[in-house]
Fold:
Amino acid sequence: MKNKFPIDVDNSINSGQVFLWKKDGADWYGINGQDILKINKNGIIKSLTNTKTNFFRKNDNIQKIIKLISKDQTVNKAVKEYEGLRIFRQDPFQCMISFIISSNSNIQKIKSSLEKITEKFGKQVRIQNKEFFLFPEPEKLANASINEIKACGVGYRAPFIKEAAQMVTLKKIDFKYLEKCDYYEAKKNICLVPGIGNKVADCIMLFSLNKLEAFPLDTWMIKILEKYYSKEFKIETKTITQKQYQLLHEKIVNHFGPYCGYAQQFLFKMERENNDKKWL
DNA sequence: CCAAGGCCTGAATG
DNA sequence: ACATTCAGGCCTT
Structure:
């Protein structure tokens, strides 16, 4: 049986949601927490450590989701252009650290920092004659010194990373719980971590905690809202304040529906590509 | 509640 | 060359 909605692997990987993926020939290899994933040219995903994974979010009814978000004409255009773009379900701890690092940075730099972190703190493994570094366990980063973390090029975010890892080891952040509770409760909790504000929290929730109503509002999305949605979502203030972010999000869920996170991913991809932004 | 400024870093820009 | 700007924000004042 052929999948009517195949995943566009290249575009999905190059859409700013994951950073530790490398292409080798026709195959992609990626680090996902303590797992190594391989996606072949036919789009078949496999865990090289034989771990159960739902990286491709196979429970999403993508047909229904795309139908719903495509009611919006701009999203509809983006969907047609990047049909196979998908949201992955990644390891929450890795996702959290990745997006703490992402703030006020750029994709190349995020990638380089994360690679250094895996090389310095992650377990080295050899599988299928290839070398990999897993993502470090929370304990490892929680016990690292600020300077060791800084050596990975993360700058002032180093103490955030350490403290975030500590909160995970101390169960002040419990990903299992955050997955179960609703969007608002999860957000309230995750924003207690230093270095995590509205935008980073939304990324973590959308990409790793199964919260498809998360709609990360970064500078690009604000530009998009101003460009295509100046009537629907009027931006009142110069900078997006806490209050503004909340109000905007409510209007956005109302407009795009409960799967607005997918809408965001399509819009973001489209606008970045239109501006010739590099992903690596 | 909002605006403004600082912040690590390194690639890109002038 | 060398200085300045900018990059998928956050936090403090």
In short: Residues 16, 99, 102-110, 156-157, 160, 194-200, 203, 216, 218-221, 268, 272, 277 of chain A lie near DNA strand C (CB under 10 Å from a C1').
